[in-house]
């Protein structure tokens, strides 16, 4: 039988040897919430309540909600453990002797084409397939860099480490992701590319956010944005895109800390940069006005006092047809579903989530906000509809029948 969130809270609380009252006080939530979760009278709670409980229990949010793995198919050469080993390369440690890889590395052109394909795979939501190819792509990339240590190759290797950090974070392993960002920043320095380094800091900010280190997540992104702030009149589109991405990265942890006005001000500047730059695809990411506007919706839902009505108002400014990355479109619609649920439109929330599942059946299974919203819908519905029951079952949620 699968464990519920309440089961995990109780086990972790007892392991920490704290009472329900003490946990509630540490998390700044009501003891009634803790009690009902542990007794499985409630199957979920608001996402920020769960984050607070996870922080109080000193665990990752993904551990608390039981996020499933991104790998659905096993591979001889790939998978999450192979990705960990490729990121944490033992042979790169000083003073450690390992057997040399005697296989000939691929050519630079062939390997670069594989990097481009892997980037598309990530943004299309093919995480299971990506986990199968990314470990080899990292090993080949290091070999190519040894054979042809050009700035172009180092820039591409930085992109692969960025992919590794992003996939590890999505899979619920932000500590591996932190190691990958270290390698990304080192490769960016070898490429003599300050903009690639800027994207590395943007990735770092996201990793720190997922680790619950909100103050640091905001600080590193803001400082890098200040360092790279371009002249709006003379800046290139890529400069504006990296600057804007850093502001977007800083806005989310700011909102999580209750600084929503500051977060919205950052996004206003980012939107101005996007208007000036036009749509940009560079450094393994994308930047445009619609990308910033989706984040404004997300920010309206962040923190202890979400504003779902405002999120829905802001969502009307988003033309989803203009979103170029499929998983970004899906993430935005999950935000909309949460806002619909919080404003009482449960039928609309379910319909939105079903459309997301239709488009991204693999991706949605390990998105914490999507799983939380479905659990909340299940608790709120007295007469559970067949579509809701089917969605809950497919997402691995075991509601109390």
Textual characterization of the structure:
This protein has 20 helices and two strands. The model has no long low-confidence stretch (mean pLDDT 88). With 401 residues, it is mainly alpha-helical. The chain has a two-stranded antiparallel sheet. Helices cover 67% and strands 1% of the residues. The radius of gyration is 21 Å and the shape is globular. Helix 11 runs parallel beside helix 13 (237-256).
Counted by DSSP, the helix tally is 20
Give the total of beta strands.
Answer: 2
Strand content: under 5%
Question: Residue-averaged pLDDT, rounded?
Answer: 88
Q: Looking across the biggest beta sheet, what order are the strands in?
A: 1-2
Calculate Rg over CA atoms: 21 Å
What is the string of SSEs from the N terminus onward?
HHHHHHHHHHHHHHEEHHHHHH
Describe the sheet with the most strands: 2 strands, antiparallel
Counting helices, strands and paired strands, the structural category is: mainly alpha
Helix content: 55-70%
* Shape descriptor: globular
- The end-to-end span amounts to 14 Å
Q: Could you name the ranges where pLDDT drops below 50 across 5 or more consecutive residues? A: none
């Amino acid at each position: 039988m699968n464990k519920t969130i309440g089961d995990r809270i109780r086990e972790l609380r007892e392991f920490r040897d704290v009472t329900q009252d003490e946990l509630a006080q540490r998390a700044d939530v009501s003891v009634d919430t803790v009690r009902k979760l542990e007794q499985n009278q409630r199957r979920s709670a608001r996402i920020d309540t769960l984050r607070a409980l996870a922080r109080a229990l000193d665990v990752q949010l993904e551990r608390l909600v039981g996020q499933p793995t991104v790998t659905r198919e096993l591979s001889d050469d790939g998978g999450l453990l192979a990705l960990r080993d490729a990121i944490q390369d033992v042979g790169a440690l000083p003073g450690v002797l390992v057997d040399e890889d005697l296989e000939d590395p691929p050519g630079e052109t062939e390997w670069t084409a594989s990097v481009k394909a892997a980037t598309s795979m990530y943004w299309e939501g093919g995480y299971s397939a990506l986990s199968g190819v990314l470990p080899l792509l990292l090993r080949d990339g290091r070999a190519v860099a040894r054979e042809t240590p050009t700035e172009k190759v180092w820039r591409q290797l930085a992109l692969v480490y960025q992919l590794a950090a992003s996939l590890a974070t999505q899979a619920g392993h932000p500590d591996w992701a932190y190691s990958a960002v270290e390698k990304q920043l080192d490769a960016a320095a070898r490429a003599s590319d300050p903009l690639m380094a800027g994207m590395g800091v943007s990735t770092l900010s996201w990793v720190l956010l997922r680790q619950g280190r909100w103050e640091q997540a905001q600080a590193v992104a803001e400082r890098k944005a200040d360092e790279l702030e371009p002249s709006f009149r003379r800046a290139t589109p890529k400069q504006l895109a990296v600057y804007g991405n850093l502001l977007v990265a800083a806005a989310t942890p700011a909102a999580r800390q209750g600084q929503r006005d500051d977060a919205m001000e950052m996004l206003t500047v980012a939107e101005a940069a996007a208007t000036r730059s036009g749509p940009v695809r560079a450094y393994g990411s994308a930047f445009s006005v619609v990308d910033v506007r989706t984040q404004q919706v997300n920010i309206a839902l962040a923190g202890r006092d979400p504003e779902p009505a405002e999120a829905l108002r802001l969502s009307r400014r988003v033309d989803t047809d203009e979103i170029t990355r499929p998983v970004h479109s899906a993430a935005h619609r999950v935000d909309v579903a949460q806002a619909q649920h919080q404003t009482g439109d449960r039928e609309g929330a379910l319909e939105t989530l079903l459309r997301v599942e239709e488009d991204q059946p693999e991706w949605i299974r390990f998105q914490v906000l999507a799983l939380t919203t479905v659990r909340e819908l299940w608790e709120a519905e007295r007469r559970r509809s067949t579509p809701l029951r089917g969605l809950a079952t497919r997402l691995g949620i075991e509601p109390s029948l």
